[in-house]
UniProtKB/TrEMBL annotation:
Residues annotated as the enzyme's active site: E53 (proton donor)
Keywords on record: Hydrolase, Metal-binding, Multifunctional enzyme, NADP, Oxidoreductase, Riboflavin biosynthesis, Zinc
Binding residue positions for substrate: R185, L205, R208, E300
Gene3D superfamilies recorded: Cytidine Deaminase, domain 2, Dihydrofolate Reductase, subunit A
Record-given protein name: Riboflavin biosynthesis protein RibD
Length: 369
């Protein structure tokens, strides 16, 4: 690892500290180096707050003059909720800026780097780009396509079963796996489920701070807790005000084909979309979520919605917890998909990460579309 990579690695480490709170903004870290010493560093914590470069420049003070700034994403060049970071770097007298990647946000998209170059600053980009991409998969996909990054979480037995024929499913996987889910939930913008899951399990679909591990709690204080938006596909208007998803803090969006006149709390909004097959149009739903600045969707649902998301090519990542037990052929399967005529039609996945979580295995896979 050379000197530039060492400082960019530190900037990436800083950026990760914002992964629970920055939504809908990207995770960004910045390190300022002068004469071989780090004189300033910072990361973006939340939308509307100072960007990573501003935190780092404040720490560096006068030492920023003649320095090199390492930033995980191209500095912004426009006036949003905060002034342009490119201007702040120029004013501070930074000599060189190294970024991991350009920002695909149409409001930036190379303009930040151009502004720095026009001011006589040496600019480089592309250092550790793959690592920077993985840090902001949701934000980057939304900026490039208008769609959020969808993670489909499922849990099964060794024989791919999710519940007994009676419907009993608590709990197939271990307590450790459920705590692991909390940490991944906490990083998403929205939690997607269905009215079938709400009626069957009456879940909270929230992030519970006391179930986060100590390492996460250390970088994510309870007072900063951000509840992802709960998005419930409810084409038949079966969810009612008494259900737990409605009663919890944070926003809840009910996705329906027509509104009802129930007396909903202020945190509940009904999103109306056209019908498609036996439910709502899920492609339009994802477009709508993108327009509402949802970067990442964490889907926890039954086999019908899971199968529909997969069949429509909307799943970017499958997070599958597998418990070392067998439920038998009368138990429920993972996906409801159209009957396959031959094996060539079977959906395929690439496994990119496998970890043991307690007694279970956690597989992370990308569908092959």
């Amino acid at each position: 690892m050379n000197r530039d990579e060492k400082y960019m690695a530190r900037a990436l480490e800083l950026a990760r500290q914002g992964r629970f709170t920055t939504s809908p903004n990207p995770n960004v870290g910045c390190v300022i180096v002068r004469d071989g010493q780090i004189v300033g560093e910072g990361f973006h914590l939340r939308s509307g707050g100072p960007h990573a470069e501003v935190h780092a420049l404040r720490m560096a003070g006068d030492k920023a003059k003649g320095s090199t700034a390492y930033v995980t994403l191209e500095p912004c060049s426009h006036h949003g909720k905060t002034p342009p970071c490119a201007d702040a770097l120029v004013t501070a007298g930074v000599n060189r800026v190294v970024t991991a990647m350009q920002d695909p946000n149409p409001q930036v998209a190379g303009r930040g780097l151009y502004k720095l170059q026009q001011a006589g600053i040496e600019v480089e980009h592309g250092l550790m780009m793959a690592e920077a991409e993985s840090l902001n998969r949701g934000f980057l996909k939304r900026m490039r396509t208008g769609f959020p990054y969808v993670q489909l979480k499922m849990a099964s037995s060794l024989d791919g079963r999710t519940a007994l024929a009676s419907g009993e499913s608590k709990w197939i996987t271990s307590l450790q796996s459920r705590y692991d889910v909390q940490k991944l939930r906490a990083q998403c913008s929205a939690i997607l489920s269905s009215s079938s899951t709400v009626l069957a399990d009456n879940p909270y679909l929230t992030v519970r701070w006391n179930e986060l591990d100590a390492e996460t709690q250390a970088v994510y204080p309870e007072e900063n807790l951000r509840q992802p938006v709960r998005v419930i596909v409810d084409s038949q208007n079966r969810v009612a005000p008494h259900h737990q998803v409605i009663q919890q803090p944070g926003h809840c969006w009910l996705v329906r084909t027509k509104a009802d006149e129930d007396n909903w709390p202020e945190n509940v909004e009904q999103i109306l979309l056209p019908a498609h097959d036996v439910g709502v149009d899920l492609v339009l739903l994802m477009m709508q979520l993108g327009k509402r600045q949802i970067n990442t969707v964490w889907a926890e649902c039954g086999p019908l919605l899971a199968g529909a998301l997969l069949n429509l090519g909307l799943v970017d990542e499958l997070v599958l917890y597998v418990a070392p037990k067998v439920l038998g052929d009368t138990a429920c399967g993972l996906f409801t998909i159209p009957e396959l005529k031959n094996l060539a039609e079977a959906p395929e996945f690439n496994i990119f990460d496998v970890q043991q979580v307690g007694p279970d295995l956690r597989l992370r896979l990308r569908p092959v579309y």
